[in-house]
Amino acid sequence: MDKLLPPPPLASDERFSILANIAAERFAQLDLTALMVYLIDQVDASALPALAEQFHVQGLEGWLFTTDEREKRELIKQAI
Fold first, then answer.
1. How far apart are CA 57 and CA 51, in angstroms?
2. Are 6 and 16 in contact (CB under 8 A)?
3. What is the C-alpha separation between 21 and 19, in angstroms, rounded?
4. Distance CA 32, CA 36 (A)
5. How far apart are CA 46 and CA 37, in angstroms?
6. Which of 78, 70, 79, 77 is nearest to 39 (CA)?
7. Exposure pattern of 16-55 as b/e (b: 16+ CB <10 Å)?
């Protein structure tokens, strides 16, 4: 991974450069796809009820009338 440069006040201290590089390596290994919850077609099905609540389509607002996961995803997408 490329070396990261810390802000100028910290650049003269090698400890901060090492720390920045370690942090960058760790962050590069994280899977961020779980954070992209607004990609409705790709989000895990377990997140759908929370998204339905967020976009006010729970219960009689539409959620109870859906019969499968595809319809639930479409309902949420229409609410956005």
1. 9
2. yes
3. 5
4. 7
5. 11
6. 77
7. bbeebeeeeeeeeeeeeeeeeeeebeebeeeebeebbeeb
CB atoms within 10 A of CB 57: 21
Question: By C-alpha distance, which of 61, 67, 60, 66 is closest to 79?
Answer: 61
Q: Please answer whether residues 66 and 75 qualify as being in contact, where contact means their C-beta atoms are separated by less than 8 angstroms.
A: yes
40 in Cβ contact with 15 (< 8 Å): no
The tokens describing 70, both together, are 């595809």
Residue-wise pLDDT for 6-56, tens only, equals 677 777 778 887 888 888 899 889 888 777 788 899 899 999 999 999 999
